[in-house]
Structure formats: structure tokens, C-alpha cells
Amino acid sequence: MANISKPKHAILLFLQVLFLAFAAFCVYSGFSIIGMLALFGALVLDRRLRHLRFPALRHSKPPFSVTKRQWLAGLAFFAALAVATVWLFHDAATGYGNGVVRLYTFLFALLLCSLWCGGLFIRWFLWWF
Question: Is 46 exposed, middle or buried (0-12, 13-18, 19+ CB in 10 A)?
Fold first, then answer.
């Protein structure tokens, strides 16, 4: 610990544990949105604690950039999701006669898009904080 006092460190850790416990309680009780906000609050406290403990790491922030290949991959994922959605709606309009292949195709495309967007959001979140 470079330049943070032990009581301040203990208070921040205690608040972080309280936020995590509150988030778990909210998710268990059915208030998912409030639980997610409490979880993000705990993450912000963790990031602040890390910045206070290691101040030299704060200034070494590379620029946030997304390459052309990543944008093309995201575009392909969203195009696949659009095609799978249209295919699923067509199957619903015709009475679901072809089994669950279209549903699984839609869910797989949705998973790929959400993983790509989640990865981009995590990179942006880590860059921002």
C-alpha cells in the first residue's frame, strides 16, 4: 500500500462488501436492476481502491480503439442475428413446423452478439475507470 491509510482502506473494503451483499440480496429478492447497480457500485469502489493503492498505474492508460476487423466481426454477428430473427419469425408465422433448429440458431446468434458487445463494453469500462 503506497499512500493510503489503513482505516481508509478498511472502510473502502467494508463498503465494497456491503455493496456486494446488498447486490446479492437484491438479485435473490427479484430486484435485478437494483442489484446490478449495487454490483457496479462495488466495482467502482474496487477500482477506486486500486487507484489509491497503486497511483503509478493510473497514468498508463492506452487509448481506447476498436480495429476495423473487430467492427467487421460485430457487423457480421449483428447480420447473423438479423437473419436468424427473420428466420425465427417466419417459422412462427408458419406454425413452428420445423422443430427447434431456428430457435437454437437465433439463440446462438444472440449469444455471439451479446459476447461481442459485452467484450467491447468491458474494454470500454476498464479503459474509462
Answer: middle
